[in-house]
Amino acid sequence: MSYPVVKGVSYIVAHVPDLVRYGSKPAREIAKDPALLEKINASLRSFDQAKNYPPHQAFIGNIKPEALWDLERPWFEHLLADSPRESAWGEIMPEDEFYGLLKIVDVFDLIDLTSEFTAIVKPKLENHKLIHAADLENLGDGVSRETVAQKIKAGALPLMLGPELVGCIQDGHDEDHNLTADILLENLACKASGVLAMRRALHSLNFDPAAIDFVMNTGEEAVGDRYQRGAGNLAKAMAESTGCYNSTGVDIKAFCCSPVHTMILAGGLIHSGVHDHIMVVGGGCLAKLGMKMKGHLANAMPIMEDVLAAFAVILGPDDGRNPQIRLDLIGKHAVSTGSSQQAIYEALVKKPLERFGLAIPEIDKYSTELHNPEITEPAGSGNVPKNNYRMIAGLAVMQGQLKREEIDTFELKYGMPGYSPTQGHVPSAVPYLGHAREAILKGELERVMFLGKGSLFLGKMTNLSDGMSFIIEKNKGQ
Which residues contact 349 (CB under 8 A, 6 or more apart)? Predict the structure, then answer.
């Protein structure tokens, strides 16, 4: 049967150490203890350290996630040598260029960059293959340091590059706390990183942006004002900045599960003929920078949550080549499912496979929440993907599809180490989509299941959890 296909995927990392102070956790802790900012600044990584960090290279596709099994830990102490900044699917962008990109996608002149900084960063952006002449016009020539200082004195948020003041972002309204500088910075960071990921996906496929009909954003930012908090629409804003002029868009909200929900919704829209080509995008989450910094500082580690991560996926109708999304093999966490881990995995893994007589070991790879354990373990959150794989393996044992002694090796055979930045929605299964697509096209894999979970109770409206799963498999026409 004809199903929608995954035509291409991109992943980007923006290294933004000087924005860590504006993450939700650091901002709250610095307000209580201003001396903490100095400790944070002393524990930030350089761009080369972030670029050569093995999980980041796995995230953008330069090394396979499974290669991390063979690399000595801690990875932050055993860096790769001279890793490339770019990959076939994406890139790792330094902070100064990302500041420039923030200004480029800012259409309301919320951000001011100093003329001295602009003069330095503009030539770098001119050499970036995804930055266009119109972008450089939006970047402008900057303003004086005195102007920036005056705006900060009036309440604008400073933008730092190490010890140097390079710009600021101001409130969007005098009375609306939904349009304060810190919230607008979160929204612009999501937009800028999402735009970069979208441009990367289009460039890597040599895909005409005008052929994109619909953009669906899975980011976590609730863009809005005092009357319509969370109304969006970052998807359409990203489409505008990416040249997708024939597209409209919508934001899909489902906490960490949003990417999986959105992939399924996009596949359904293509399968039904409503849209032809859809871009699914997830911009980075500034609020989650430095989220687990206390554990890192307590263990004399660098602050590992110093990057914004983003992804973009181009989906289209069956082309006889690319991996298909099996819309008949969808798993869901229903209202009646319950909140026990066993019930969740039965709903997401067991039930969709049972409907078609498939056993758990007949899926070649499982992609779950791929949080990097090097970030989560020092903060007491454990190894999230490892725990997920043990749950799936335990379920297979209960079904008589796996021997009990195989539980410990299930992760090695059917899973992978966690390698995604802890950006909430970003680690939720989709970081492996690019690797899976490539492996299926090469004949190394046939079927891969992606499952994401969400914590709906965080919104204080329900105690329910959430979860969805989908499978991509080799195209029968390949």
Answer: 331, 360, 366, 392, 395, 449, 451, 469
- As beta bridge partners, residue 93 has 14
Phi and psi dihedrals of 238, rounded to 5?
Answer: -65, -40
Q: Alpha-carbon Rg of the chain, whole angstroms?
A: 22
CA-to-CA dists, residue 226 to 69, 173, 174, 286, 372, angstroms: 48, 10, 12, 21, 36
The residue to which tokens 């800028």 are assigned: 192
164-169 and 214-217 beta bridge pairing:
unpaired
Q: Is the dihedral of CA 316, 476, 438, 347 positive or negative?
A: positive
Place of tokens 């992939």: 263
Residue 61, token pair as written in the block:
């596709």
Query: What dihedral do alpha carbons 71, 74, 80, 81 form, nearest 10°?
Result: -130
Question: What separation in angstroms does the CA of 237 have from each of 102, 154, 240, 246, 363?
Answer: 13, 28, 5, 13, 37
Give me the tens of pLDDT residue by residue for the chain, a chain 478 residues long: 789 999 999 999 999 999 999 999 999 999 999 999 999 999 999 999 999 999 999 999 999 999 999 999 999 999 999 999 999 999 999 999 999 999 999 999 999 999 999 999 999 999 999 999 999 999 999 999 999 999 999 999 999 999 999 999 999 999 999 999 999 999 999 999 999 999 999 999 999 999 999 999 999 998 989 998 888 899 999 999 999 999 999 999 988 999 999 999 999 999 999 999 999 999 999 999 999 999 999 999 999 999 999 999 999 999 999 999 999 999 999 999 988 888 999 999 999 999 999 999 999 999 999 999 999 999 999 999 999 999 999 999 999 999 999 999 999 999 999 999 998 899 999 999 999 999 999 999 999 999 999 888 888 999 888 999 999 999 998 7
